[in-house]
From TrEMBL:
Keyword terms: Carbohydrate metabolism, Nucleotidyltransferase, Transferase
Xref: Gene3D superfamilies: HIT-like
Pfam families: GalP_UDP_transf, HIT
EC number assigned by the record: 2.7.7.12
Listed name of the protein: Galactose-1-phosphate uridylyltransferase, UDPglucose--hexose-1-phosphate uridylyltransferase
GO biological process, one term: galactose metabolic process
Occurrences of domain Galactose-1-phosphate uridyl transferase N-terminal (ranges): 5-172
Molecular function GO labels: UDP-glucose:hexose-1-phosphate uridylyltransferase activity; zinc ion binding
Signal peptide: none
């Protein structure tokens, strides 16, 4: 059955179109090219860092496991600016390309997030949290976006596993819509839109992929992409950076399990994952929000219909995607 489904938070419509006849196995990736360790820029992050400076090393010294560096080719820079203002250029608004662009590198050349020891995966999330807290101190920063590009079609230009953080002076449109939808839902229903979805998924059971003590992973009802996954802390929290150690560990475990299943089910496909959290400024405004991680496998190519309408056509029913991922143990 083909169906238009509306996302409860953003209001976006998606066309779930399984009648296009693609089975889960049709989404399997081709064999991944493994780039050699020799000549890899991230074997020594200091050499790949802007100004040769390591921002953070965990642990410090020779036996480091995770390091954070400033990107040598940053999308945004601080560039000696202390205060930034919006200006007008003709009818347009313009802001300096201010911000921070950091790269978080894990030690092992071949171990992506699902392959790390659970302690090291936890360490990666702790480094994200530490950098968040530090970057949020800059009042020019409105939003901090943390993400992973895994594989060439997901935008990774370097093979060695790494993650990026971009702290920017604007709230990105996707986050703005998400915040807006969450605030509206709260006003109308006196409930968190994400808690509502979590409760419904728990009741329905169909789209749950895995669960840990403090986190749940499911395929969203209005999934835009085949095998899309959301990782939610079970407890309502607006801010990723406020998550405590125990919960963060449990969330890391859930993300690892979900990515391991994706890897097994679809033969190690490319994917992106990113954190959606409340903005770092005006914190009192966002108590309605519920931070989470979105995982988007790159198995599908958007074409003219999607580009021109923003209605994604998803040939994979999320119920079937979840069941396929659940079974990939
Ligand atoms: Zn490497
Ligand atoms: Zn909630």
């Amino acid at each position: 059955m083909n169906e238009f489904r509306q996302d409860l938070v953003s209001g976006d419509w998606v066309l779930i179109s399984p009648s296009r006849g693609r089975r889960p196995h049709d989404f399997k990736a081709k064999k991944r090219k493994r780039a050699p360790k020799i000549g890899c820029k991230f074997e020594n992050p200091r050499e790949a860092a802007s100004g040769g400076k390591v921002i953070l090393s965990e642990p410090d010294g020779k036996y480091w496991k995770v390091q954070a560096i400033l990107n040598k080719y940053p999308a945004v820079t601080k560039d000696g600016l202390w205060v930034i203002d919006e200006e007008k250029e003709g009818p347009f608004f313009v802001l300096p390309g201010y911000g921070y662009h950091e790269v978080i590198i894990t030690r092992d050349h071949h171990k992506a997030f699902p392959d790390l020891d659970s302690d090291d995966a936890f360490l990666v999330l702790k480094v994200f949290r530490q950098r968040y807290r530090s970057l949020a101190n800059d009042n020019n920063i409105a939003y901090i976006h943390t993400f992973a590009n895994f594989g060439e079609t997901a935008g990774a230009t370097i093979y060695h596993p790494h993650y990026q953080i971009l702290a920017i002076p604007i709230i990105p449109p996707d986050v703005r819509r998400s915040l807006h939808g969450s605030a509206n839902y709260k006003e109308k229903n006196d409930a968190c839109v994400h808690c509502t979805q979590i409760n419904w998924e728990v009741e329905q059971k169909k789209r749950i992929i895995c669960e840990t003590k403090d986190a749940i992973v499911f395929a969203p009802y209005a999934s835009k992409e085949p095998f899309e996954m959301r990782v939610f802390p079970k407890k309502h929290h607006p801010y990723f950076e406020d998550t405590d150690e125990r919960e963060l560990g449990s969330i890391g475990e859930a993300l690892q399990t979900a990515l391991k299943r994706l890897k097994k089910a679809l033969n190690d496909p490319d994917y992106n994952f990113f954190i959606h959290t409340a903005p770092s400024r005006d914190r009192e405004k966002y108590s309605h929000y519920h931070w989470h991680i979105e995982v988007v496998p790159r198995t599908n190519i958007s074409a003219g219909f999607e580009l021109g309408t923003s209605v994604e056509v998803n040939p994979m029913d999320p119920d079937d995607a979840a069941s396929f991922l659940r079974d990939a143990k």
